[in-house]
Amino acid sequence: MRIFVARLAGTPVFDPAGDQLGRIRDVVVSMRPAAPPRVHGLVVEVQPRRRVFLPITRVRGVEADAVIFTGAINMRRFEKHATESLALGELLDLTVEVGGEKVIVLDLAMEQVRSGEWLITKVAVLRGVAGRGLRRRRGETLIVDWADVKGFGAVQDDQGAAGLLAAFEETRPADLANALRHLPDKRRAEVASALEDDRLADVLEELPERDQIGILGRLDAERASDVLAAMDPDDAADLLQDLPPAQAQALLSRMEPREAAPVLRLLTYAENTAGGMMTSVPIVLPPHATIAEALAQVRRQEFTPAVAAQVYVARPPIETPTGRYLGVAHFQRLLRDPPSALLGTAVDNSVDPIRPDMPLREVTSYLAFYNLVAVAVVDELGRLLGAVTVDDVLDHLLPADWRERDERTPEVDGGER
After folding, report:
1. d(CA 175, CA 337)
2. What DSSP character marks residue 271?
3. pLDDT digits (tens, 9 = 90+) for 139-154
4. Where's the CBS domain (predicted)?
5. How many CB atoms lie within 10 A of CB 192?
6. What is the architecture of the domain spanning 1-158?
7. What is the pTM (predicted TM-score) of this model?
8. What is the pLDDT of residue 412?
């Protein structure tokens, strides 16, 4: 059976009892002179976002939507040995030679040979490509024997990232962010450069502060400002606060005034207050909008579940800071009322909004006391400034390095790592 490794990315991994262990994030191989690479095993991401090693000898079945293993595995955090390579993270997008012609590696195929070993036997390559564009490239795709390919061991200044990104195309931003964290600095920069601004913005929002700064610092100033503009204003403000003041000011000055305005407003509030945590772009509609219009906004993909759980109702203008805040229409109420009904009839004003200077501890207590997933933030004039969501609060309650921490789980006997 021949398996292309890029298609394994994100595949669930199950034990024989049918319980899911995690998802595949890479394939570990060892390069050998004058011989196909040997497959050592799979990198599997288990909760909470920790990568472990699944030896290929434990794999008992590979299907289109599942990998099944047997026995026990070692739950120690995966660390790549010096003699190993990651098929997805390091080998895709390399420029190699087939028959004297330069081609780009799109995928690798592994097969189990008679000895029982798994080897990389085939390489999917793209030929006839002029230049190394960052987007999907056009050309002829070939599948060739490993022995016919030369150049895998060469160090390359610009490896590109289209193949790797294609393997992770359907993953959530948080999963792609975690994949980036495990790549070498050079490869991480190549992937970041290849991402669209919106996708890179989503990924940056899921990275630790150190990695955010590192990636942003490798982008030219114009691109960095575009990515900041694509981020949610509250996340952009948090990132700017972590940058040297001169760099932050330079990036702000390159942003369009209408894009910089909400970020500048958020920067005026202390970090651990409602104003410092809130998103300034919740769903806001006037009272004369219909329930159908409100539900159309809730369905928009760019809103997180916490933001989409309610629609805030205010007098025009409806961009923050709005006209007078009237109340909130909860998603459940919107589902119960006729689509043609006016939004103003579904307003709940039983829970008071909070002020932007409310400290984190009080905001947390407020959400818990009223069983809320979000709460409106208004100024002294009663204008809606934004909303604090439960995920905003969690980000500020957790330790600063929570995205980098691995839960300590006892090791399971029988592993081969």
Report:
1. 37
2. T
3. 789 999 999 999 887 6
4. 347-407
5. 23
6. Roll (2.30)
7. 0.73
8. 46
Summarised one tens digit per residue, pLDDT across range 360-388 is: 999 999 999 999 999 999 999 999 999 99
As given in the structure block, the two tokens for residue 255 are 């942003």
CB-CB contact of 93 with 107 (8 Å): no
pLDDT digit string (tens) for 90-99? 999 999 999 9
Q: Does domain 163-272 have CATH number 3.40.50.80?
A: no
The CATH number given to 284-397 is: 3.10.580.10
One-letter amino acid of 255: M
Q: How far apart are CA 136 and CA 253, in angstroms?
A: 32
DSSP 336-404: HS-TTSBGGGG-B-SS--B-TT-BHHHHHHHHHHTT-SEEEEE-TTSBEEEEEEHHHHHHHHS-TTGGG
Please state, in angstroms and as integers, the Cα–Cα distance from residue 108 to each residue in 31, 43, 58, 122, following that order: 13, 16, 21, 6
Give the whole-angstrom CA distance, residue 92 versus residue 86.
Answer: 9
Q: Return the axis-axis angle of helices 197-204 and 221-230, rounded to nearest 10°.
A: 70
C-beta of residue 8 within 8 angstroms of C-beta of residue 92:
no
